[in-house]
Amino acid sequence: PPHDDTHAEKSIKSFVRDMERITKRIRVGSITTNTSMAERQALKVLCDRSDVLVTRSDKGGEMVVMKAADLLLLSRKHLNDASMYSPMQKDPTPALRLTINAALTRILTA
Length: 110
What we know:
The structure is a single chain. By secondary structure, this protein is mostly helical. Helix content is 58%, strand content 9%. It has a two-stranded antiparallel ribbon with strand order 1-2. α1 (5-28) runs parallel beside α4. It is flat and about 45 Å long.
């Protein structure tokens, strides 16, 4: 399918809302965790490994731990699926960078 700029705009707006919520929670000091110290230490060990990736799943927001090589293969398989992705005509990075930087400036100076 053709590239849809509205998807990028929706993603940016979602990112900005998340950042505003997180920065507000940091200012108020209300961030809590449901993991034990041992679990956080084990997670740090995994995160420090270059052959392992720890990330949030696409659906459900659960934590995923997988080999970096497996993720690379899975990513290539998805990106090579022409029914899901098509090459973009123009790199949106410069415009997106300006939008994100402006939003972050607004958040940090609020």
